[in-house]
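Sequence, please.
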């Protein structure tokens, strides 16, 4: 199974020699983490999706003038093709020397120096902490020639997926704890492959290799 995964509107930073880069806020665990040769995902919706090598996860957010959950646009800021799946030894902590951790930068910014922001607590069926890593050749941020993100709603419409379906499936009733509660939207392999091909034709594609040494100094 493959997924369209909704998350908050991305921040945008102009990075030297690259241009606009859309990314998660620097204040949290920066998930998915893009400043690495392999993109990383350890927290954002990770417990809500089935995980297998080769699957496509398309990370999206609404337009700035849209009102959630009645959005009109879904802008894709990351095509994430899973290439490896890693279970943590201790689900609520990790060290710099753990084999999962690629480097000190990702340990500091993504893994938050091993201090987990949302620790698992006392479930009847304990959840596993998983990090998925992206294929560095097939995962990228797609952009237009004007360095803007690509709206995938028109493409999905051609595949019989309506905006009403997306709204009803992605939105989730809130209990007041999450500003924009959402759930991943499942898409079949054929649609996922065609969406990947569509986004692969974007005028600009930014890969992990382009960003790994360009983390903005904040």
């Amino acid at each position: 199974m493959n997924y369209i995964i909704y998350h908050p509107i991305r921040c945008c930073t102009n990075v030297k020699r690259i241009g606009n880069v859309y990314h998660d806020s620097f204040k949290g665990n920066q998930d998915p983490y893009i400043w690495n040769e392999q993109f990383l995902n350890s927290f954002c919706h990770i417990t809500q999706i089935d995980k297998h090598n080769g699957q496509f996860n398309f990370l999206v957010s609404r337009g700035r003038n849209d009102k959630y959950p009645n959005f009109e646009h879904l802008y894709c800021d990351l095509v994430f093709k899973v290439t490896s799946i890693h279970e943590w030894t201790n689900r609520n902590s990790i060290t710099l020397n753990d084999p999962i951790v690629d480097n000190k930068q990702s340990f500091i910014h993504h893994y938050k120096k091993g201090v987990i922001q949302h620790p698992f607590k006392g479930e009847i069926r304990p959840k596993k902490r998983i990090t998925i890593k992206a294929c560095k050749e097939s995962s990228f941020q797609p952009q237009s020639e004007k360095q803007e993100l690509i709206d995938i709603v028109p493409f999905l419409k051609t595949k019989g997926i309506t905006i009403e379906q997306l709204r009803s499936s992605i939105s989730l009733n809130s209990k007041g704890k999450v500003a924009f509660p959402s759930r991943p939207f499942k898409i079949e392999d054929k649609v996922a492959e065609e969406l990947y091909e569509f986004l692969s034709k974007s005028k600009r594609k930014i890969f992990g290799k382009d960003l790994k040494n360009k983390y903005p100094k904040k």
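DSSP finds five helices and eleven strands in the chain.
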